[in-house]
Predict the 3D structure of the following.
Amino acid sequence: MNDYNTMPQAAHRLELIGRERLTVSGVEDVDRFDETGIVMSTSAGTLVVTGEDLHIGKLSLDGGELHVDGRIDSVTYEDEGPARGGFFSRLFG
């Protein structure tokens, strides 16, 4: 049975070209960003991108797409759960 009152989950996709350009689809919100890290909510969970000289080239929350330029060192999904002051505190503390 279909539930017509709920929105379908947006398709989530990552495309990394070299270590210089990342395209993410299924982005719901950008929680934090600076030139060393970007934390975003996606349809697949919280995504953390770290690197150097990171810049958001394009952000379309209506379309759910984000383009990142710079030197990308890591792309990591964080598990949802109780706040424990771990990775986020060290990254943006």
Observations:
- The chain has one helix and six strands.
- Confidence is low (pLDDT under 50) at residues 1-7.
- The two ends are 46 Å apart (CA to CA).
- Helices lie at 87-92.
